[in-house]
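<goal> How does this chain fold?
<sample>
Here is the protein in question

***
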Amino acid sequence: MARCTVYRSPGSTDPGAVPDTITDLDDIRLHRIRESLGTGDFCWIDVAEPDDAFMARVAEVFGIHELIAEDAVVALQRPKYERYGDQLLFVLRTVVYTPSGDDPDLTPDVTTGEVQVILGDNFVVTVNHGSTPDPDERVAENLERVFLPQTVLYSLADEIVDHYLEVSLQLEDDVSAMETRVFAPGSNLDIEEVYLLMREVLEIRHSIDPLTVALKLLVNDRELIVEDSRTYLRDVLDHQILSADRIGNHAERLASLVNAASAKISLQQNTDMRKISAWAAIAVVPTMIAGVYGMNFDDMPELHMSFGYPLVVGMMVLICLILIVLFRRNRWL
């Protein structure tokens, strides 16, 4: 699916015109769109998971660098900033955190997507892979302040990074709940639950952390990015750093939880082994005594005593009771 929205400069002959949106983008329409752009006008092409042929057509019409066109059709890239002359490629990762989700991978609660932004002098192309936000309202609002194609890039980055903050708050609740369960007295928490949450936090962290460097490079690009846009991008960078710090903190807390849960399991196993050892020691006493009198020697006086049997049984019971009392005093039972 692809659409193109043409934004007319506020200084055009019809400054109040609503942006034209075209959804059927063939070669003829792409050429007409490019030719219709006047001074100050620009177009925004938004496409979801394009194939090589479509990106080749767009690259030909708008003069997009071939390396950018090749990257655009490849998903699962790390957040990055790449400059190609008067064009740039900026990649962002989207993150959706849904507790009790059903994403069919090792992290069912986390769904990631990707937005690649190709920025030129009078055009911007956004390539979406997976779950991505709809920034139309934010774009329209921000264009009233800075009417440039780079405003679409800023709006997308602002939308995605703001959602990072929401995800970090959701994780805060889940990590706190996990800490309560791990340290609750008598808790029988399955450590696999801690590992699963840890994997989800690490996946989110891998999507978020690299964006910090990419945003810093973008903010420092004084040639392509105007000062007004750089001011707003610095605000996005601040939010990005805050989100990355929060996610990093969650990862550290979960690493501590893994260690605590492992120590708790080891302690429980030691306690179980002590109980097993104590009962084994108690069972050895009657077994040993019965073994002695089961050897069938002729010269065993106790065998011919009238009270021999109750004496031996009573001795077994007494010794076992003494051992039970001793083990309980030492908290082995």
In short: The beta strands are 2-7, 20-22, 42-48, 80-84, 87-97, 110-119, 123-129. The chain has a mean pLDDT of 85. The chain has two domains: 2-265, 269-329.
